[in-house]
Specification:
Number of strands: 9
Order of helices and strands: EEHEEEEEEHE
CATH class: Mainly Beta
Helix content: 10-25%
Strand content: over 45%
Radius of gyration: 13 Å
Number of helices: 2
CATH architecture: Beta Barrel
Distance between the termini: 13 Å
Shape: globular
Number of domains: 1
């Protein structure tokens, strides 16, 4: 059973690729709650330098910002107003708020590299 602070989401792309993630309210409660209150969220996807970005339209700022992320982490990036899924460990272009992690198999995470830029993506409660 998931902790009360956790929110499971599915991110489904228009080519039927789907990844599952767990967002943790402990990291950035206002961001996670805003995302939860707006689910399902439809956005556009773009793979840029090892990060899959999905526009979410919540317009939040930085809370516990970092620029160091690990493969499989999920973060909110205020610059661009998007949810980012990291396919590589990296230093980000702008500060992000790490809010969760991917729980799908590594092969599913790697499959995000084939998602077409501009593809429709839907975030929904898992």
């Amino acid at each position: 059973m998931a902790a009360e602070s956790e929110l499971r989401i599915d991110v489904v792309f228009d080519d039927s690729t789907m990844v599952q993630a767990v967002l943790d309210r402990v990291h950035a409660p206002s961001i996670v709650e805003e995302l939860k209150s707006r689910l399902p969220i439809e956005g556009k996807a773009a793979l840029l330098r090892g990060e899959m970005r999905v526009t979410v339209g919540i317009n939040k700022g930085n809370i516990k910002a970092t620029r160091q992320v690990k493969r499989g982490q999920v973060a909110y990036m205020p610059l661009g107003d998007c949810l980012c899924i990291y396919l590589d460990e990296m230093t980000t272009f702008s500060p992000v708020n790490v809010i969760g992690r991917i729980i799908s198999a590594d092969s599913v995470l790697e499959g995000l590299r084939t998602v077409r830029r501009g593809a429709r993506a839907v975030l929904r409660q898992g």
